[in-house]
Design a protein that fits this description.
This protein is α/β, with parallel strands linked by helices. The chain folds into two domains: about 200 residues, Spore Coat Polysaccharide Biosynthesis Protein SpsA, Chain A (Alpha-Beta Complex), CATH 3.90.550.10; about 80 residues, no CATH class. Helices cover about 40% and strands about 25% of the residues. The strands form two sheets. Strands 1, 2, 3, 4, 5, 6, 7, 8, 9 and 10 form a ten-stranded mixed sheet that branches. InterPro entries: Nucleotide-diphossugar_trans. This is Glycosyltransferase family 2 protein.
């Protein structure tokens, strides 16, 4: 059993606590640091490997580095975690047991994640549109789960492929799930296991709807990757329709209702332009 933690300018105390908590629960831990400078953490552990990429290779490439390390270490499963997730000392074993149980009932389950509790609202995150494809007493199969808290069966990774590095960040987790489902695998959510996770940098409200607020550059990847993914045949139709319809609202809200309006507008316009032209990869490589 192994784990991958991806860092980007983390709050050091929180990142250190996560490393400490996870390292004692796994055989191998791979920390991928996309920060401009190496994060000043205590990483002196026999089962830990550390990679620093000052240029920020993106979350997909970072996860792929970690997954490759764990495959070389002969791990059978890999837990993916972001720096802003909170887990307890029993989380890894509990999630692994849930995957074993799910695979006993449905051998097509390749990955499982916990139910997510938003750190802003302290409430359970309930997808508005996502369909439950198969309901079991202990788990439910769904179309996609987020990457943080995702436990992957590495024995099947060769069949699904690694994460799509061309997307760089936004949509990476969902795209992999959809691709796995195209290969006749299932992804699941454990019904009775919870993880606190921070989604976005802040929250704002428009027309009675609360929405996530991220950094301006994330808007580039969000708008661009929506336009890239909507042209892939294995991406669910409901996801395409929902995101295309919401794009004008998000464009308006980020142009007129947030700080750094001009900067946000530039990133969104460039994201739309590159999305229409199918230009992927890093923002810095394109602009």
């Amino acid at each position: 059993m192994g784990a991958v933690i991806v860092l980007f300018n983390p709050f050091l105390a929180e990142a250190q606590a996560l490393v400490n908590k996870v390292s004692g629960q796994v055989d191998a831990l791979c920390v991928i640091d996309n920060s401009p400078r190496p994060s000043e953490l205590n990483l002196d552990r026999a089962n830990l490997s550390y990679h620093h990429f000052s240029s920020n290779i993106g979350i997909a490439a970072a996860q792929n580095v970690g997954l490759s390390d764990l495959c070389l270490a002969k791990c059978d499963r890999a837990l993916l975690l972001d720096q802003d997730s909170l887990v307890d000392e029993y989380f890894v074993k509990s999630l692994s047991d849930q995957l074993s149980s799910a695979q006993t009932d449905n051998k097509r389950v390749i990955a499982i994640g916990p139910r997510i509790v938003c750190s802003f609202s302290e409430k359970l995150v309930k997808p508005r549109v996502q369909k439950e494809l198969f309901v079991h007493e202990d788990f439910v199969c769904v179309t996609q789960i987020i990457s943080s808290g995702m436990l992957i069966d590495l024995h099947q990774l060769e069949l699904t492929g690694f994460k799509d590095e061309r997307l760089f960040i936004d949509g990476v987790d969902h795209e992999w799930c959809w691709r796995a489902r195209r290969k006749n695998f299932d992804v699941a959510i454990a019904n009775n296991l919870y993880m606190v996770h921070r989604l976005g940098d802040a929250r704002s409200k428009f027309a009675g709807i609360t929405y996530k607020v991220g950094s301006p550059i994330r808007l580039y990847y969000q708008f661009r990757n929506i336009l890239i993914l909507t042209r892939r045949d294995y991406v669910p139709l409901y996801w395409k329709i929902r995101n295309i319809l919401v794009m004008p609202i998000r464009f308006f809200a980020n142009t007129f209702l947030q700080n750094n309006k001009k900067e946000r507008l530039i990133f969104m316009v460039r994201g739309i332009w590159d999305g229409l032209r199918m230009r992927d990869g890093s923002y810095n490589d394109n602009w």
